Amino acid sequence: MRNMLPLPQLLAELVRRPSVNPMGRTDIPADILYESRVTDFLEARLRDLGVAVRRQTVRPGRDNLVATYTPPHPAPFSVMFEAHQDTVPVDEMIVEPFGAKVEGGKLYGRGSCDVKAGGAVMLAAFARLVKEKPAGSAAVTLAYTVDEEHTFLGIQELMKSGVRADYAIVAEPTLLNIVNAHKGVVRWVLETQGRACHSSRPENGVNAIYRMARLVSAVEEYAAQVRALPADPVLGPRTISVGRITGGVSANTVPDVCRVDVDRRLIPGETAESGAAHLSEFLKGRGFDFPFTLTQLHAACPPLDPALSGELVSRLGATINSVVGKHTVHPVPFGTDASTVANAGVPVVVFGPGDIAQAHTKDEWIDLSQLEPAVPGNASLLLAEYQINHPAPADVNLLRIAAVRQDVGAVTPGILQRIGEDRHAVERPLVVDALRQRENRGRAPRRIERHGAERVPEDVAEKFGVAFAMDLIVPTLHEEARHGFF
Ligand SMILES: [Zn+2]
């Protein structure tokens, strides 16, 4: 096993390897485009560690990397660390984007803050675990994904491939605080058609821009209505905004097509599909005498609901406090890979060194004091502490999470195994309490629609005669109901 580079050098090596996401543009030079240079470098470092590592091709030349550490002892819990490999483009930067210059305690360059520092810190913490194999540590999956800055393809592929853990931490600059919630975003193109003709006889054509003007006015009205709908207590109101309009070729041609880009911010409980249906219904209700289309632009980023991550927030928070002394837990206005992880049923928070204020800027930098091994508050130390000292939550907490969500997706094989070991560890009052809390939040328990979606591991199935996760959970809840606990 080769020694890992010291963190500042590791970060410099990552910054020197361009991994620009074109974000829909076609004018980015090939020698800085896409993530492969960073992927190759990280893969080599992980192979140096002697751990299992695999590539997951997301698009030609764009691979996720997944490495796993399995401790020699039974792991009390599993955790996934995830960071994206891509950066935004480098136009108009006033520092050398790939120079990794260090000055005044700062390292400059594209991606230094967002999020190569976070990725480097995770690698250092992972390497330390592999090397020292401390007793009681977690099983850790370290994942580096592509395309976070544009359409979230990498994280979607990762979760689709079945990668799971009891908990997950997604790297983004949070100044070593915990981010547990954000809105989702979906973008649509609204399009009207017309019939082109010479503008000297406009009556012979159909003006697509006039049609769009009426639609846009309706969207403006709709924006006020959407804003007035019940807001999320943490994240605030739903919003919608028209950001760009295109149409027409010249002043002397009646335009045959007009498009607008619409940006809709989603709150927990909403999906891209429900948002689209709501808007379509509103527009149809206006009775326009012409057709129009609403098309989703690319994959949506779902909202990050804090409901699932309470346990993780308090455990990681305790670790941060023990090292740094304090931290905050707060929502952010921007989207991250975390919500896709949460949608797969894995409790997740966002955490990392650096300040989001420096992300995507013309002189992007990171304060190296958050990386120096000698500094007690360094992020790598925090993650290492977390993966070693986070005690496995009691079965009842895990079951409570599943009960609150009433969702088989929340039941990972790790949870099942622990419940399977001692089914009687389930304490009735806590489960009941969780359901009451859920009611108090104004959400009636949902019907379990995904019943049977997750197969139970064979040994557990044999022990309890059940085939699916919810078969194991639901009878317990039904039993409570029969006994009048709720
Ligand atoms: Zn980022």
Q: Report strand order across the widest sheet.
A: 1-2-6-3-7-16
Query: At the fourth CATH level, what is the homologous superfamily of the largest domain?
Result: Zn peptidases
Distance between the termini: 56 Å
Enumerate how many helices there are, as a single number.
Answer: 14
Q: How many structural domains?
A: 3
Helical proportion, percent range: 25-40%
Main beta-sheet strand count, sense and barrel state: 6 strands, mixed
CATH C-level name of the largest domain: Alpha Beta
Number of strands: 17
What proportion strand?
15-25%
Global Rg? 25 Å
Low-confidence runs (pLDDT<50, min 5 residues)? Answer: 373-377, 391-486
What class would the helix/strand composition place it in?
A: alpha/beta
Name the features.
486 residues; alpha/beta; Aminopeptidase; Alpha-Beta Plaits; 3 domains; six-stranded mixed sheet; 17 strands
Structure description:
This protein has 486 residues and is an alpha/beta fold. The protein folds into three domains: 7-181 and 303-389, Zn peptidases (Aminopeptidase, 3-Layer(aba) Sandwich), CATH 3.40.630; 184-296, Alpha-Beta Plaits, CATH 3.30.70.360; 395-482, no CATH class. 36% of the residues lie in helices and 19% in strands. The chain contains 14 helices and 17 strands. Strands 1-2-6-3-7-16 form a six-stranded mixed β-sheet, sandwiched between helices. Strand 1 and strand 2 (62-69) form a beta hairpin. Helix 3 (112-132) crosses helix 9. The longest helix has 21 residues, at 112-132. The radius of gyration is 25 Å and the shape is globular. The model is unreliable at 373-377 and 391-486 (pLDDT under 50). The structure holds zinc ion. Zinc ion is lined by residues 84, 114-115, 148, 172.
